[in-house]
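User: Study the shape:
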Amino acid sequence: MVNQETNGVQSVKRRHRHEGPQKHIIAFIFSIALTLIAFAAVAAGGVNIAFTVILLLVMAVLQVLVQLGYWMHMKDKGHLIPIVFMAGGFFVAGTAIVAALYWMWW
């Protein structure tokens, strides 16, 4: 922080903190690990199909969160409006999927 004096008023100038590549490398390794776990679950073959599907869905949700948080920078301040609109889109899409499944099997 740098202190500057302007018109008798002291102001504080803040710098933008640069994250550096460390968090991106960790997020990349985490994404690769999630992908390898998903591939291993499918390649194992002898694993229960219901367990495999649930594991794949959990890996997909974690992968989306990592992608949005680190690569799309949704974890940073000032991204509330895009997060709200994306949550609304997920809600509408989820409602449409549930309604379609209900309509097909009813």
DSSP finds three helices and two strands in the chain.
